[in-house]
Amino acid sequence: MWDYSDKVKEHFFEPRNAGVLEGANGVGDVGSISCGDALRLMLKVEPETDVILDAHFQTFGCGSAIASSSALTEMIKGKTLDEALKVSNQDIADYLDGLPPEKMHCSVMGREALQAAVANYRGEVWSDDHEEGALVCKCFAIDAVLIEDTIRANNLCSVQDVTNYTKAGGGCSSCHEGIEEILVKVMVERGETFKPGVDKKAEVAPTGMTNLQRIRKIEAVLESVRPQLKRDGGDIELVDVDGKTIYVNMTGACAGCQMEALTLQGIQQKLMEELKEFIKIVPTKTGALTRAMK
Fold it and tell me: Among the four 79, 96, 152, 236, which has the fewest Cβ within 10 Å?
C-alpha cells in the first residue's frame, strides 16, 4: 500500500491540537461525512493583531487527514491571518516529509478549511457551494473551480494527479472527460499539451500488462478484500473484464447491502492503485450474459 513518512505516523498516532477549541472566534468546515472526509478547523485570533493564538481541529477521515490537520494547526499558530493564508497544501505535505500522491487531497482539504475559518472570523462568506453547471465530480461534489485552482497551484498534468489531489474522478469515473477539458485549458495556458493516459509528473505511462496478467492482478486484489467481506457474511466474485470496466458479483450479506456502493468504491480505488489506471467496477449478476447477447 502507501509509504508514510515517520512524521505522518507521528501526527496520526499523536495528533496535536485535536478536539474542540474553547473561545474559538473563527471556524471553518469543509468536506462531508458522506464523501468520506470532513474537517472542522477552529481558530482563536487576537483581534488587535490578527495573530492566531491557538488552532484546533476535528476530522472524520483517514490517517493522512488527521496528520495533515495536526500539521496545519502547528504551522499556523503564531502567524497573522495573512501569513497563515500563504500556507499551501504543498507546504503541509512538506512539513510532514511528504504524503503519498493518493493522499494529497488531505492537504488540499486543510488549506480549504483554513480559508473558511479565516473568512468566518472576518465575517465574510466562504462557501464551497457550486454554481449551477459547475459541478464536475458528482461522487465527491468537486467543482470546476477547485479542480482548476488545484491544477494551477500544483502544476498537475493528468487525471490521476487531479484525483490524488481532489478525489475528483475517483468514484464512478464518469467525470474524467470533464477533468480532461480543464486540464487542456490550464496546460495550454502553460504552453503544454495534455496527453491522455500519461502522467507527466511521474514521466511514465500506465504499465503495460497482458490480459492474463491484468486479470490475475484484479483477482489478487479481490482476494485481498475477501476475508473482510466474509467476516460480515458476504463475498465478491469476478464476473468479467471488458476493457476498463470490471464486472463483479456481490454475494451473501453484501448483495443489496446499504453499504454496497461504499464497499465497491473502496475496492475500485484499490484496483486503480494496483493497476495504475482508471477503471470502473460494476456490480452485476448478469453482466457477461447481457453483453454477450448484444
Answer: 152
In this structure, what DSSP letter does residue 170 have?
A: S
Kindly state whether residues 90 and 144 are assigned to the same domain.
Answer: no
φ, ψ (nearest 5 deg) of residue 42: -115, 130
The per-residue pLDDT for 270 is 82
Query: Whole-angstrom Cα distance, residue 231 to residue 234?
Result: 7
Q: How many domains does the chain have?
A: 3
Q: Is the pTM of this model over 0.70?
A: no
Closest by Cα among 240, 269, 222 to 1: 269
pLDDT in tens, 86-108: 999 999 999 999 988 878 888 88
pLDDT of residue 207: 52
Q: Is the residue at 200 inside a domain? A: no
Range of the domain at 144: 135-189
Average pLDDT over residues 168-182: 83
Measure the CA–CA gap between 27 and 167, rounded to whole angstroms: 24
DSSP 3-state of 275: helix
pLDDT at 50 over 70: yes
- The set of catalytic residues is 35, 106
Residue range 181-202: mean pLDDT, rounded: 78
Q: Going along 33-180, which residue ranges are E strands?
A: 37-46, 51-60, 135-137, 142-143
Domain boundary among 121, 153, 170: 121
Amino acid at 133: G
**How many degrees, rounded to 5, is the angle at CA 9 between CA 4 and CA 15?**
140
